[in-house]
């Protein structure tokens, strides 16, 4: 059993294997209902999902548990994760639930929660819920038969989200004349993302908009941006947008088919927001995985970069604490706090398109703001998740690499929040040396954590 029931982004795993089983989902629904059933008002919870085949059974199990705990359930069907965050706020619900494993293949699924303000739950709240789920002797405080919740489906949820995202794009601008390739990864955004772009006037070329329950993220979406890049070159589009399965992350491709990661997008958006006076303290929040080039870029432009633990939830927590308005991850999670309380791929795309329209310049000219340092990431499968300081050999190896990098690079070791992996990342100016250092460190980690 894992140290915590929840990982860095909710609960996630292989379907019908612990913890992604219907009995755990049922208890999760009960526990979340108990945790968020406060006061005498009518308690509501919004449940959304992506397009995975297993979404139906988890939706049913969660709904049963939540209704048994006295919560009224509103089901949206397939919708992006940020849409559920938005609907939770706009419908004055007590809780939002998303059934998705994000960028993982279809045989995985996951469950994550949003509070009434649309923010992902902090560790403490997740641990309270997990405590009830894992306590086999927990006595559920069931309401009487009149207090059981109802379950309904909201038919216009997608339309509400489209209207909201369009409202975050300047009213005086349109996308008329722009050719846009959008890859929805056969996931949650397969309807709403193309429609939103078309309603703003763009000519849209669709990829990954035919989900069948098992093809989510399969050779498409943000994990395979080369697909959208090839289509951009084929149709001579102005931009390509690659979303992941739950559409909370975005990878962008310029008109030449050059792939831009989250760091490059953050640099572009930070510069534009600083110029508009919309970046308080010129502060950008990113994680430990963001490239050193982004840190140097912010410093050279009179700003600074605040790093957090990996996970957009931790980015958002730091943004709230520091009053920051822009944050994100190299992987493509981008948070524009003026508009949203979580990463939103479609919303981020509209902010990039806004810059393109205001500047009337191609993306290739706008986005070349930083040259990322060469970076090598190796995933090492481990048997023990020991604190690194308990293995002196690992510390000595890291110190030696950092000494050789001479302050012009860095080393990062961290455990995956969802898998039995240690991620070994080395960054520096010489790609051959970076690869050599990463491979040597990975061997030490593998040996010490068997």
TrEMBL record:
A single Gene Ontology CC term: cytosol
Record's InterPro entries?
A-D-PHexomutase_a/b/a-I, A-D-PHexomutase_a/b/a-I/II/III, A-D-PHexomutase_a/b/a-II, A-D-PHexomutase_a/b/a-III, A-D-PHexomutase_C, A-D-PHexomutase_C_sf, A-D-PHexomutase_CS, Alpha-D-phosphohexomutase_SF
Instruction: Report the EC code(s) recorded for this entry.
Output: 5.4.2.10
Q: What sort of enzyme, by top EC class, is this? A: isomerase
- Sequence ranges assigned to domain Alpha-D-phosphohexomutase alpha/beta/alpha in this UniProt record: 4-137, 168-257, 261-370
List of residues binding Mg(2+): 102, 244, 246, 248
In the UniProt entry, which residues are flagged as the active site? 102 (phosphoserine intermediate)
Functionally, this protein is described as follows: Catalyzes the conversion of glucosamine-6-phosphate to glucosamine-1-phosphate.
Mind telling me which HAMAP family this protein's record contains? GlmM_B
Family affiliation: Belongs to the phosphohexose mutase family.
Q: What is this protein called?
A: Phosphoglucosamine mutase
Q: Which organism is it from?
A: Desulfovibrio intestinalis
């Amino acid at each position: 059993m894992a140290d915590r029931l929840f990982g860095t982004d909710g609960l996630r795993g292989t379907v019908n294997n612990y913890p992604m089983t219907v009995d755990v989902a049922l208890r999760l629904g009960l526990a979340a209902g108990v945790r968020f059933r406060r006061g005498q008002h009518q308690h509501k919870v919004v449940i959304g999902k992506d397009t995975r085949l297993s979404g139906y059974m988890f939706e049913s199990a969660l709904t049963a548990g939540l209704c048994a705990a006295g919560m009224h359930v509103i089901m949206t069907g397939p919708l992006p994760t940020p849409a559920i965050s938005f609907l939770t706020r706009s419908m004055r619900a007590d809780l939002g639930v998303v059934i998705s494993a994000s960028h993982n293949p279809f045989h995985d699924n996951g469950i994550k929660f949003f509070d009434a303000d649309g923010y992902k739950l902090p560790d403490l709240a997740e641990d309270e819920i997990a405590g009830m789920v894992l306590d086999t002797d927990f006595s559920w405080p069931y309401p009487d038969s009149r207090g059981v919740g109802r379950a309904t489906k909201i038919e216009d949820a997608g339309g509400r989200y489209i209207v909201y995202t369009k409202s975050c794009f300047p009213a005086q601008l349109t996308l008329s004349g722009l050719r846009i390739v959008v890859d929805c990864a056969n996931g949650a955004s397969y309807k709403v993302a193309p429609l939103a772009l078309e309603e703003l006037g763009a000519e849209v070329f669709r990829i990954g908009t035919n989900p069948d329950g098992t093809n989510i993220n399969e050779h498409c979406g943000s994990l395979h941006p080369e697909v959208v890049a090839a289509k951009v070159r084929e149709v001579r589009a102005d931009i390509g947008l690659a979303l992941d399965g739950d559409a909370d992350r975005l990878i962008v491709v310029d008109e030449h088919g050059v792939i831009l990661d989250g760091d490059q997008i953050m640099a572009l958006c930070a510069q534009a927001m600083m110029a508009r006076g919309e970046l308080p303290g010129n502060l950008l929040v990113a994680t430990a995985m963001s490239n050193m080039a982004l840190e140097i870029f912010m410093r050279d432009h009179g700003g600074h970069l605040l790093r957090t633990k990996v996970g957009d939830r931790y980015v958002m927590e730091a943004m709230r604490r520091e009053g920051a308005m822009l944050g994100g991850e190299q992987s493509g999670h981008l948070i524009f706090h003026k508009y949203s309380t979580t990463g939103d791929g479609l919303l981020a795309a509209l902010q990039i398109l806004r810059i393109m329209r205001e500047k009337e310049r191609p993306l290739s000219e706008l986005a070349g703001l930083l040259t990322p340092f060469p970076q090598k990431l190796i995933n090492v499968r481990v048997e023990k998740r020991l604190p690194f300081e308990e293995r002196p050999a690992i510390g000595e190896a890291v110190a030696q690499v950092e000494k050789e990098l001479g302050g012009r690079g860095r080393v990062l070791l961290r455990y995956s929040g969802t898998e039995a992996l240690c991620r070994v990342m080395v960054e520096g100016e010489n790609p051959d040396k970076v690869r050599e250092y990463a491979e040597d460190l990975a061997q030490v980690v593998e040996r010490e954590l068997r």
